[in-house]
Amino acid sequence: MTKTKDGLFVVFTGAPGCGKGTQARILKERTGICHLSTGEMLREFAKQNTPLGQELKAALERGEFATDEMIIEMVEQRIDAEDCRHGFILDGFPRTLPQAEILEHMMKEKGIKLNCVLEIQVPDEIIMERILGRYSCMKCGAGYHDKFQKPKVYGVCDVCGGTEFARRQDDNRTTVQNRLINYRLLTYPTIPYFERHGLLKTVDGTGTIDAVSGKINEILNIKL
Ligand code: AMP
């Protein structure tokens, strides 16, 4: 596949609950580029009634990572697809140093230049409150929060009118604590790595969704 040179190829990184998914969805709406969430891909995979699907489901519920091999294969297949031709936002990948190294290698091989790795910074005490309150519409996936983003009409999705909502299985206090430990231990080392490679940009993720999105547009030079 030939990639365009003027595409937008970015990575959104940061602790669980920092707003990667929310901001990636907004950027996708504005630019039309592909949003690739490895967490979403894994949750879909974990729905399968196969031994591997069930094993993965249990691992996700404990807040454990999937293997680098599995993730890398999934991502490589996805970024080769036609809809990623003009760019992608990688959300939740790379999450370990080996994944970061392989991503750089893959990009080089495919002749794609990564524009930047954007770290969304949010302190731990805010993260817990954000994650424990979030839920989404089961029909269209629109995201809500008990405190920060309620639907306009109680129990009805603003986007599609759906009335059924769900919380993620891994959005409970114990699992979030494990996810934060894994973030510090396994994902955080990718930050200095990307800084050394001249790719790192950081954004303060503590403001409102619109405020953070505005700052991201500035960093990525997106004109509205
Ligand atoms: P997320 O939706 O990004 O919060 O991801 C949900 C869960 O999927 C994480 O807590 C991990 O267990 C797993 N996961 C997502 N992306 C990766 C990755 N790149 N490598 C390993 N595990 C991942």
Explain how this protein is built:
- This protein is α/β, with parallel strands linked by helices.
- The chain has a domain at 8-123 and 187-220: 3-Layer(aba) Sandwich (Rossmann fold), CATH 3.40.50.300.
- It has helices at 20-31, 38-45, 51-62, 68-79, 97-110, 124-132, 173-187, 190-196, 209-220; strands at residues 8-13, 34-37, 87-91, 116-121, 134-137, 143-145, 165-166, 200-204.
- A hairpin with a 5-residue loop joins strand 5 and strand 6 (143-145).
- Helix 6 crosses helix 7.
- The radius of gyration is 17 Å and the shape is globular.
- The two termini are 29 Å apart.
- The structure holds adenosine monophosphate.
Brief write-up:
The chain has helices spanning 20-31, 38-45, 51-62, 68-79, 97-110, 124-132, 173-187, 190-196, 209-220, and strands at 8-13, 34-37, 87-91, 116-121, 134-137, 143-145, 165-166, 200-204.
